[in-house]
Amino acid sequence: MRAREIMTTPTFxxxxxxxxxxxxRMMTAHGxxxxxxxxxxxxxxxxxxxxxxxxxxxPPGDPDTGVLLGSAPRTAGSAMxxxxxxxxxxxxxxxxxxxxxxxxxxxxxxxEDGHVxxxxxxxxxxxxxxA
Length: 131
Description:
Blueprint: H1 3-6, H2 20-30, E1 34-38, E2 44-49, H3 50-55, E3 61-62, E4 67-68, H4 76-79, E5 87-88, H5 93-103, E6 107-112, E7 115-121, H6 122-130
Parallel strand pairs: 5-6
Antiparallel strand pairs: 1-2, 3-4, 6-7
Helix pairs in contact: 5-6
C-alpha cells in the first residue's frame, strides 16, 4: 500500500500571507495539527504546525484594546518551517511510518512534482497497518 492510497484529500493549505489567526481557525475547524503552506501554483513552500503558531511571539500592543503597536501581522510565511518531511505519493506505508517516526512528525504532506496532493497522519498509517 502506498501513501496516495491512504492520504487525506482534498488537502487544505495555507498561503504565506495567511495570518496566524486565520491558520489557527482553519486548523481547529478541520482538526489539523499541521498544514502545508503553498504558493499560488500549489507547490510546497513549508509547513505550519500548532506548535509554530504558539511559539511565535505575540506582537506588542495594548491587550485591553487589541491595538497593535508598530508591528506587521503574524503570517504563515513568517512562522512556517521550510524544512521538514514531505513524502512522494508512491512511498510504501512501512517506509512512510519509518520516515515519520525518524522525523518526529505526526503528519506530512504528500507531494507529486512538488505539488501537495494530500496529507498523511499517523492515524492513516495505523489504519493502513491494520488493513
